[in-house]
Request: fold
Amino acid sequence: MTANDGIPELDPTTIDFEQAYQGGTIVEGLTMDRLPWEIGRPQPLLVEFEQAGRITGDVLDIGCGPGDTTIYLAGLGYHVTGLDFAPTAIEKARAKAAEGGVTAEFAVADATVLTGYDGRFDTVVSSALAHCLDPEQRQAHVAALRRVMRPGARLIQFCFSEADFSDTYAPYSIGEDELRATFRAPDWNLTELRAGKLTAIKPSPEFKAVMDRSAAQLEFDSAGSMLLPIWVVEAERV
Reply:
């Protein structure tokens, strides 16, 4: 949908991720060379977790998109499985891994089900996925995660937090109370919950116009990339 001023109206809950990966269209009238979350590298926060020794064993990258995190971790020697709902994202991830000479497992999967992966993983990394699921889907997703994680496994999750104008870019932003209620005994041990920033792309003029139209107060890093408020979650599967 396009407003009278010619600038597309962004409703993140309507994004078709397969369509976005196929042609770069995130809403009608707005096609991008790079999707906002495709920064071409793992999130800096994820790198910090790895360097701190908090990624171990067999790793699941859930909602892997074009595979940047999977490929990064596989390149460091981890056995990594990257799963995404969008077939085109998985095709891109496989091609990128092959180009880089990195061995990783990729497959199309529904994050609310995760059939066939029971008890396989010691670490799950989830960057910018949970806020793409509505509240009911998130419950199913967490239950599926617990089923595929081994006892004592660690979940590292970055998800958009509720903030002024978060409905501009977050399909379903998540509140602190929900996270504390979700990752609690007897199923989980919540070891870390703090505010952080997710790195997105440096916006094109067209995308910045869409964001500016909502009067969103954007923050940028030194390279001009957007920094968006998130929850940094670390939880242990009991």
